[in-house]
Amino acid sequence: PNYDKQPIRVGADGGNKFWAPPNHKNAYLRDKTSAQLYRWIGGRMTNITAGNLNRKYSTYAVATIFTQWPDTTHLLAVTFDAEKKDVAEEYGGWKVLSFDYVTRPGTQSIYSSVSVAGDKQQLAAPGSTTWVDQLLPAVYNYDPRPNRPAPVSAGLIGHLALLFALPAFSAQHSSLSQVLMSCMRPNRWHKHQLPHGHEKERGMVVTVFLDPDNKNGSTKSLLDRLQNGGYGPFYGP
Asked: What is the pTM of this model?
């Protein structure tokens, strides 16, 4: 945040005060040298930053996401680049990461679909022990109901830029490549032992591009199907 452009913002909820990101597009100081470009193909992530950052790409999805740690453990997000549009004008303010519940076809299990416009703020069912404590703060985990059996989780699906942001927050920025390339696998997450990346005032812009070198496997229709659960969970149960 650039507090010379917009003073520090503090919100309140039930008497508790918490930091909030700027809501004007000129109130940021992005580290341009930190930009990284990765390719996700064949279930593997590779870093292709060198020689590829200046290529022209077609954008599929974008999200800007901030942690509110240590004031709260919630994540705030919008589904655009907050340096290009005013959050106050486009959305009326930052949105708490949320979920929609989607029943997996032909089963009784339920997907938690990551969103900024969902009507639920906790997972539809208990999160997998392989990812719930690394990809999401504990505040988002399923809240058990007394005397009621827990639903069966089908895993995480949803907005692709948000799904890629979650592992980026699971570790510090210096470990980003290690985490993305070692922990992300088709339909599942491999846990790591690194310190979490929820640091004060940390935010990021995640952009998902169509891959010009994989035109048959990287299309809008295929990515729509991927984020909607058509190929199973992005992070499985």
From this structure: 0.93
